[in-house]
Batch of 3 targets.
Target 1
Amino acid sequence: MNTKHSRMASPPDVPIDPATRLALYRKMMEVRALEKRAYDLFLQNLIKGTSHLALGQEAIAAAFGVAMREDDYTFCTYRGHAHTLVRGASMTGVLGELMGRECGLMAGKGGSMHLTSVPHGAMGSYAIVGAHLPIAAGAAWSAQYRGTEQAAVCFFGDGTTNIGAFHEALNFAAVWKLPVVFVCENNLYMEYTPIGAVTAVEHPAADRASAYGLEPLIVDGNDVEAMFKVAQTTLARARAGQGPSLIEAKTYRHSGHSRADPAKYRPAEEVAAWMRRDPIKLYREKLLQQGVEEAAISKIEASVAAEVDQATEAAKASSVPEESIAMTEVWANGDWSWRN
């Protein structure tokens, strides 16, 4: 990762306790296992259409999943399996939704790009690039108005930084000092195009922060502890009424933009360099260096493997939703009743 001109975020050097370290590792393992299983099920023709996997980007979701309060709000993109799972949604619910089964989070009607679990604060995955940033600001405004000290966390890709909604949401969040944390998952590519080829600044999110009076924050998105500390700091800032934060997390997807993308446009040496920085491999090695027993790590890995196997079988056994529910919970009619 090139950090020559980066203003790397420097979170407070507060030790992370052993239980939290293992929780971070487990969250990353859960996301990795789920995404790999989703890929396998696609190859078996059990998942239709396309989907966008977060393989290689697990540390960002895991860090916020551990740092957030249960009543906080998450908003994510079509690459949202990870962010929904780490908020507490079940593997069965996620895989069931991907497979279009009744056990899915939305009874199989939403599919991969629209995962939502309101009981867990996962307020939707948005297929329209940038659409969810103003919505996240609205949720934060609601929390501010109600005085709940809840925070909204909004995840988006580097390509979103060139969308008008990005700038509009940042501006209003800053003006109103909303309790929202904007997290740019910069994996260097907007679908098939390098973000640097179409952006006037080196850091597409961080280099725009000062325009809204915000501190430029760049963090290694493959270092789960660095991500966790920045998550803690920015969430605490939001709850204290100090306004929004904009984080640029540098990361890399292990595969193409979607299932249909072989990612041949990426230089082989670039891919190899980032593969050596696999966040799970790096953190496993760090845990061992910190004195965590390998038996404890292996126990987590075995537990997660069993969990994803059980979820897979439960989703396979679930029925396809009945036609009678196809048009339910799809829209609001906008009449007077919702206003009162």
Note: The longest helix spans residues 18-43.
Target 2
Amino acid sequence: MIFINFKAYREAFGRNALELAKIAENVADRSGIYIAVAVNYLDLPLIARNVSIDVFAQHVDAVEFGSFTGSVNAEMLKEYGARGSLINHSERRLTLADIDFCVNKLRALGMNSIVCTNNVSTTSAVSALKPDFVAVEPPELIGSGIAVSKAKPEIVENAVVSAKRICKDVKVLCGAGITNHEDYVRALDLGADGVLLASGIVKAKDQKKALEELAGLL
């Protein structure tokens, strides 16, 4: 499983975002690998309408409908075609109570939750909330080009063990520094179900080639 977070990169908004999502769709079809994208709120409706792969939001607020200026809740995301959302990314941290709210709200709406964590103990705590996915990403390695599966393999191994011990159905993603097929395979060998990455694909000079290499097509 490969999840690509477009973040707020210039290379992945508007027309560029749709082009990259179509590349992901094409590579998913040819490789047989589940590939999904997480895009910004403005691009989400357009991309969800024009690709067959799952499209996720990058964040969801722990609110119902009401006087919450600037907030986007899970119902809004579903209305515009999101399959689910990232929660608690290192760049959008939430309290445990808010994470719990978002996981339960998405579940009630038939949507998927991907909760980001930064270490084994946080992964254990979050797994008790029974999200669909936990994505382990040591912040110091995000965007570094140094894969956590190589630099700190014990984090991935221990996170998988602790998460599955608490919730056997939760899927574990490996994030931070993932850039190539070797990183992807190494993450799977360590027990992860897939990877979550951003700059390794989004900021590549040739996005299509980078994703094809990651998926083992080259």
Note: The mean pLDDT is 91.
Target 3
Amino acid sequence: MAGFRRFLGPRWHHPEDSLRCRFIWRIEVGNVVIEGLVSGLFDGVSIGAVLLIVALGLAIVFGLMGVINLAHGELMMLGAYTTYVIQNGAKAMGGWAPETYIFAALPCAFLVAALVGLLMERSVIRYLYGRPLETLLATWGVSLILRQFVRSVNWPMAIALVVFGLLFGLGGWVLRRSSRWKGLPGWANLLFLSLSAAISALAGVMLQQNSPTWFGRAWFSTRNVDVTPPSWLRSGISLGTMQFPYARLFIIATTILCLLAVYWFLNRTAWGLRIRAVTQNRSMSACLGIPTERVDALTFALGSGLAGIAGCAVTLLGSVGPNLGGNYIVDAFMVVVVGGVGKLVGSIVAALVIGIATYLIGSGALALMVPGGELLKPLTDFFTFFATTSMAKVMVFALIITFLQIKPAGIFPQKGRSVEV
């Protein structure tokens, strides 16, 4: 009001001017509240888009296969590091490459994470279906292996892995084509695996000891690395005092495209029909001739690839490190559980609700929306107490626990005979 007094000068005490000042003041306060609400909703939606793109692949895998994949965050990390590598390559190329590398990084991150996920499913998870505790522990172990791999990988290790893949993959394929190999006992596979691992490990150790220092240096190490967005993603749209960053708009657009692509794949393709059939009734699908093992492998690769896209998108928000996945895996599981297992619509709603609630609580916007007065001061103090990022997560967790007490199956529970069984 003091500003209005200085603006109006000696005419302030006139009754008409006083009413005019109050009217203008109410308009200004209303504009501030509306701008704050719109800005808060945008930031909450952008956070929800990040959560949704992280949880999208997890929702598909968890809904179809019932696998609690604790390595999902590390698959996301691999997508982020793939983006970092492509960015460095684009900088070395120069020209237009640094401005368009993000469009090459998205499919590459998807492919890298999908291939690693397919390898996980074929080598570990396919033997643990129907055993949730063992799957939980196995994927947790895989997450630790991937995290340590990123910290330690160098040229000798990479060459050793290629040698192992050639020996065990191609050699095993040749031996399996032989009629004599088919008659050998099961321990022969383990022996061949051990020999391939020993040869590749020996090759890696020899390269490490007999190579220059730069050749044996870790590619990423334990430090965080920065991914620089293209210049056209570093600014934003300004509407009054509100700012809408292009990076967050790009993440929202990427999330929408991923949703449309997944919906099209699941509802308009033959393999999507098979996936939905296995989700509804695995036993009946197998009886009808649907290759359930291939469906599981494809689904896990698809969910892992979506995690890679999430990692690529998250690089636009900050630095990349080996512990990147751990910052999102719990929130991703919250989205899946609250939305309803296997329900993409539920995941969308849950991600938006959790993202908006997290921002409004953590930024202190709710405390500012409470009207003044002594009667509402305890409510204002309550929201102010939770107006930090860590305390906002505590509040959101408490709200989710309360919600699950009312609806344990989530917002959109599964329906059908498989649920009854």
Note: The radius of gyration is 27 Å.
